[in-house]
Amino acid sequence: MEPRALRDLPSVDALLAEEPVRALAAEHGRDVAVAAARTALDRAREELRAGHAPGDLAARVEAEAATLLEPRLRRVLNATGVVVHTNLGRAPLPEAALERIAEVARGYSNLEYDLGAGVRGSRHDHLAPALRRLTGAEDALVVNNNAGALLLALAALAEGREVIVSRGELIEIGDGFRIPDVLARSGARLVEVGTTNRTRLADYERALGDATAVLLRVHQSNFRMVGFAERPALRELARLAERRGVALVDDLGSGAVAPLGDEPAPRESVEAGAHLVTFSGDKLLGGPQAGIVAGRADLVERLRRHALQRALRPDKLQLAALEGTLAAHRAGAVPVLRMAEEPADAVRARAERLASACAGEVVETVARIGGGALPLAELPSFACALPGELAAPLRLGEPPVVGIVRAERLLLDCRTLTDAEADEAAAAVERARSAR
Ligand SMILES: *Cc1c(COP(=O)(O)O)cnc(C)c1O
What we know:
Shape: globular
Strand order of the largest sheet: 4-12-11-10-9-5-8
CATH class of the largest domain: Alpha Beta
Radius of gyration: 27 Å
Mean pLDDT: 95
Bound molecules: pyridoxal-5'-phosphate
Structural class: alpha/beta
CATH topology of the largest domain: Aspartate Aminotransferase, domain 2
Distance between the termini: 30 Å
CATH superfamily of the largest domain: Type I PLP-dependent aspartate aminotransferase-like (Major domain)
Strand content: 15-25%
């Protein structure tokens, strides 16, 4: 039906009774057909008011339904040069992690089943040995993410008691996530010591009292202090904590299992005497969203037994992916590390190929690690520069390509694209150009 005036528009029910729309409802469900019919009618009404004929309504319902049925969470080509890009899903998973997910999730698994004894087991037992080897800690626990790891550690060790933190480490990480807020939610009381730029061992020492349960150290993540700045070495804090019988918790943020810049390694932190270290699964570890807590066995056990643990526990997909990621580290096959460490010449060669495939220009850029790790680290990189008008059509294409717009040019940074993705980007540019 092709209405010419507002009064010609059918009701939703009348539209649903038309044959192609009936078939649509039969195939995809009535709710999809109703939603598509409503949207189609709304758009037709707008067009008629603007003096345009909306064309065949049933065809429009089919088009709206097709849009509705498309997945919303989609694969994207990251041409921003930010390796751990939180808005773009942080770490692309290693092949081994994908294989573990497919293997474990397709059917049933021994997630909480002890195959040896034929009785109920714990989901936390599977990864603990590998994490012990990785960190050198006595025991380890995986939770949903690192914010959860910190929350659980503070709730289990310091609820109703005091946690001492340097004013220089009361950071906001991104999207309004602030360390002091997490601390407050854990039920612990925050005691701030030192100043923004300088905190000494004596500051912790003076604040330590009967109510103190934890000394907390937080990695500064996305910012750095330069110049007149000072904080005690972790080893000194560990000695103080030991002497006064309190726990030292070190939130490493990203953590770097493989050495990268000055990013702290969980193993070094454990060796320096931190009683618990926490770090993310999807930053420089390059795996799934997860929070890893490693440290003294009795403290890890307290976290495991805390009620919040049940609310923060990882699911089988996270555990499978994390197990695969740890295997990929042993094999040196972790995408975020490959991207972070790829020689600039190789990135340049990829940018040249992309530029010659889509008539762009190779420009030098600076790529970043992102995800709150190594904010000052500049990774020399190369991009294919294109006219800025291509930014929107490329974002809206399939697959979407997200680059950086600078001085009215669109830069497609090639450090965060694989060779195959660069080819896909070239084809996407071709399509975006021909659609204009
Ligand atoms: C990123 C970060 C977190 C939060 O980690 P998620 O895995 O995103 O929950 C906590 N603490 C620090 C220091 C961080 O850098």
